[in-house]
Amino acid sequence: MNTESHPHHWHRSFMPVVENIPEARHGAQLVLVSWDVPDDLSDTVALILTELATNAVRHAHAHRPGRTFTVALAHDGRKTIEVEVYDGSPRHPVLNGYDPDATSGRGLLLVDALCEEWGVREREFGKSVWARVVG
Fold it and tell me: What percent of the chain has pLDDT over 90?
């Protein structure tokens, strides 16, 4: 996340348990309100953050038990917001089709549909998955 080109920046770390996903979303929503982000854009960012955080908790916890996951937002003050979730897993998410009868597995498809672009950044320990949303 390039914080130099984004005057508004927020991040927070959580233990990788599912109970912290709503807390991460709520914290992000409060920050987006303080940045005067329109409701429709805020809702999109919150949904993307929820999906990325859920993936971090579900998949990364097995690789690095006890490590936190971090959610971050950066806003350029105009129309672009970047959502980023850091976790301890070196495994990259893969955008696949899904089984129509499956009860999970659609999160990254939602992220891909809702954002302008998304990707993965390598980190010293694990990776970050980011998504750019333009309102």
Answer: 64
pLDDT digits (tens, 9 = 90+) for 55-92: 999 876 655 666 889 999 999 988 999 999 999 888 88
Contacts of 23-30 spanning 24+ positions with Cβ under 8 A: 24/49, 24/50, 24/53, 24/71, 25/49, 25/50, 25/53, 27/71, 28/71, 28/73, 28/83
On whether the CB atoms of residues 99 and 83 are closer than 8 A, the answer is: no
Among 127, 126, 131, which residue's Cα sits nearest to residue 108? 131
> How many angstroms separate the CA atoms of 33 and 88, rounded?
29
**CB contact at 8 A, 126 and 64:** yes
Nearest to 67 by CA among 10, 12, 13: 13
CA distance 83 to 69: 13
